[in-house]
Amino acid sequence: MPEALEAVSLKIRGEIGLILEEVAKEMIERKECSAEEIWTCIWQKHITHTYFIPEDFHHILEFGKTLGYLDKQQQQNSIALLLDVLRQSKENLLLHIQKTGKLYYQMGFLCGLLVIIALL
Question: Which residues of the chain, if any, have pLDDT below 70?
């Protein structure tokens, strides 16, 4: 598991890559902690540096509970499930941004129009 996390961390840039790298290093050192404890501790330490919403963070921590307890196929299914949940969350946030973006654009236009009318 640590080798896999380290390999993924090298491919991912930014804060997530750093988090995965730190998890891998802690797992290699194994200070009498379970993989779940290491995963949770490091994610909680770095979560303020990410853009995950609380629901996504909850799913990430739940995924950490499966580390080291499942066989290879089940672990792959668990990863696929987490990715699906995060993709769905991303799509929902993009839809929300599109809706609110249009609203703010229209409000800006109407406020500008109101200022012009008020000045006339």
Answer: 32
